[in-house]
Amino acid sequence: MFVTTRWTRVVEARGDSTEGRAALSDLCGAYYAPVFAFIRRNAPDEEAARDLTQEFFARLLAGGGIGGADPQRGRFRSFLLGAVKHFLSDMRDHDKRLKRGAGRPVESLDAGTGTSPGLEAADSRAVAPDREFDHKWALTVLELAFAALAREYKDLGKSAQFEALKPWLTGDSENLSQAEAARRLDMNEGAVKVAIHRLRRRLREAIRNEISQTVKESADVDREMRELLEALI
User: Where are the domains of the chain?
Assistant: First the structure.
């Protein structure tokens, strides 16, 4: 049976329960980076992007928009990307209303002001904002999975083994020797090969577990795994 996930709790609660709000807060905290990356492509500078990102999450956590989460779409990632697009559209509409305000002083938001971050068109030569969002999402999932794996090995009293063998997970082992790792860990080389194989399997499981917290159906996990790999290319 597919267990209840953080995203399931959010969708079912529609922001109306303490548990649902806590689950949404956890997800937003974990997936800040993809939203910031998307907004940065539409803001004039990093400070403005951070201000907009904070405003977006403040509104989301205050209950604005969660009622529109579509259970049929199933994925927190889809909801988050749609929500941030809607937020930026609202900001642009607000900018236009200010410019049309008869008899009132108007501050242009195009390039930003001292109190209002501006919005700008994305550079057509740069990576598409949606692609950037997905790339940051994939990196965030990996970061969370590695952190979970590090905690697991720490609890097992194997932090030294995890740190020594981690390069074989990250692709940074080109100039490293498994024989040398075996000597440092006081293991034989065959045991190190087995430990690396086990560590890779546990990383895949940790990634799947992290993804499973952001979908409502078990079938969505495999699709998200495929899209994660595509986003990293």
Answer: 1-123, 127-233
